[in-house]
Amino acid sequence: MASSPCSNTNFDSGLEIKTRSVEQTLIPLVTQITTLINHKDKPKKSERTLTAIHRVGQAVNVAVGRFVAVGEAIASENQELKDEMGQACFEARRAGDAIAQLTDVGSDTPAPSDDRVTVFSDRTAMVKAARMLLSSVTKVLVLADRIVIKQIITSRNKVLVTLDHLERVSTFQEFVQIFSQFGNEMVEFAHLTGDRQNDLKDEKKKARMAAARAVLEKCTMMLLTASKTCLRHPDCESARINKDAVFHRMRCALEQVIEIVTEARSSGENKILSASICNGIRDFKYTVESLREDLFSLTPQSLTGQLEALVERTEDFTDSAYTGHEQRQRILSLCQLTRQDTQQLVHTWVGVQQSGSSKEATENLEVAILKTCHSMGDLRRELHNVAVGRASDLLKVHGEQLPLRALKAAGAEGNLEAVADYSRKLTEQKEQLVETCRLLCHVSCTEPLEITCIHAEETFHVIGPQIISAAQTLALHPSSKIARENLDVFCEAWESQLCDMGLLLKEINDVFEGRRGDRKPYLSLPRPGKHSASLKSAKAVKLDAEEQTSMAKLGLELRLLSSDVDAELEKWDEEEHDIIRQSQSLASIAYSMYLFTRGEGVLKTTLDLFHQAEVLSEEGLQLCSSLQTFSTRLVDEEKAVVLTENEKLVALCQQLQMGAKTPVQGKTAPFQKVDSTIQASRSLMTVVASLLPLCNKLIKKHKSERTSLSSPQDWRETQHTSAPVKEDAALNGNNSNGFGVKSLDEHMASLNLLESK
């Protein structure tokens, strides 16, 4: 019980914690119960210690009682879980009562030397009660989580039914009516799945969920224009093909979401992920390095077989028509060098097995292991350079979107021959991009990035033919406004995927260079009753395609600044410093605002953006406060520099806050306000990015000089984690990780949220 049970997600058979909300709800409980069990067994207990133990035990019991009441309410509303939930609640209540009885050792009660069983006289009973409480509370949370899954499935089923109706409509009036209902159902489904995505612990599932939700988000607009085109031109075969492809893709994405939340087996994806070269290289190096510990853990034949399987996968690079001759020769040469080093390793390894582990033989084996791993590292680097280099070149070449422009022009002119010609060029471009995504998947080295590569590959593979069918429809009906709008929507989806591919390249490079680009989700969407006064009367507006395009450059600058902040924070040694925590929040908020400029992410309307800008300014002002405190520990020159930059940051935060709260009127006013908000956010993040390296440098300088500034009082952030925690303080709830009534009430919000969803 000394270690947190949250680190081992199985409390009993079949019970597994799969979401962060459940895990985070348990952490305070685990912390406080661990404190009770691991108290120092002193011969004499102070009155303060006895009182603290009594108070903690009673607080746990009362809070568990409230928790159980919520669980019982959930059980009464969900008959299929009534028996299981009722049993779990009964066990939790019984365990809470047992803990209260065992900790009933306060100063106003008889001394623990009498015949009563207490935490002091029977620690085994306390451990047993704690185990029962943790197991039963976990079961209540996991059962409540099933209700969320049920809600997602129910929402999906509603969407599917409406989708079937949409597919069969024959009039515009009927289509408009049903599509309005479909839109509302998709919003509900998007909120449920978005919450679930952020709550998942498994990064692979989270990435798959993000990919499926991205498909649904983009396909909703495609479905609208493709259906309208089909209704306007019911006898057009290319319009029908275009529409059918959208409906099919939406159904596949809906099914993938359900596979993730119900943990159904996905067909073929595991094979794709396990076949990546990066995974193969990692496994091969691990196998080679394991020879240091055990010479007989595998056979030489299995090692060489593993190498040959790996080399065979490099044929995706060497057999490609788009791989240059010099690149192909380098890959083949490195594969041959790896074979030679592996053969030398096997020879040395067998020799050590036969002659024994003499010092010379062991040193030779170590040299052979290092050489083999080094040559494998060179191969990985070359494959990475080839894949990333080709992707970069393709993005530069296709950035001008010449085939798309030509298709639009040919379709508008009704030139079927030109449409066919440019369709062939787009198909060739699509094949290049699909193959490049496959190569990027080989060198991604993390499952979330591999899944993103697979999603990009599938997107190019599907949208390419859809653009062609939309262009054919326009060529057959060149005066059709809806056919032209439909082609524009598919072309925009293609361009958006090219932008995503550019970001994917950066993420892959970050991982390769040791900079993990994992971003913590930051959600602060306005909830009913929690808007600011100026936002209540404002009207939510969505930017149109032209406005989003003009926002793209500003948004990209914001994205790069948030990446710069992340990169600077990775250089800090002070992981728990307030400046780090607040800067991470700022980077995450800025990233969500960047996604808004692309029409993606959780911010859907201008109202959401302006609320997020207020949150950004508030978090920025908190950072200013931390910087002000930090500056008091500096000498005059250093203090002046930090304060000067801090004053700039304060002014920018106030400017952003005022701009976000200022009401606007007129048709173009919302767009102008969005533009000024993004620019102000960019300026704010620029100052933050310049302040971080300065502060980090000053902290390291003062640490190295061991001046008086490094005292525990001045640098409490660095000393806090190593300071001993007194037993009485921990029991009285002074520990920030403690589990008093307040902490449990706060974490019960997670369960209340599950109930209310």
From TrEMBL:
UniProt feature, compositional bias: Basic and acidic residues: 714-729
GO cellular component: cytoplasm
Subcellular location: Cytoplasm
InterPro entries: Alpha-catenin/vinculin-like_sf, Alpha_catenin, CTNNAL1, Vinculin/catenin
Region (Disordered): 703-742
Gene Ontology MF terms in the entry: actin filament binding; cadherin binding
Statement: the UniProt record of this protein carries the keyword Protease: no
GO biological process terms, semicolon-separated: cell adhesion; Rho protein signal transduction
Keyword set, alphabetical order: Cytoplasm
Domain of life: Eukaryota
Family: Belongs to the vinculin/alpha-catenin family.
Name of this chain's protein: Alpha-catulin
Gene symbol of the encoding locus: CTNNAL1
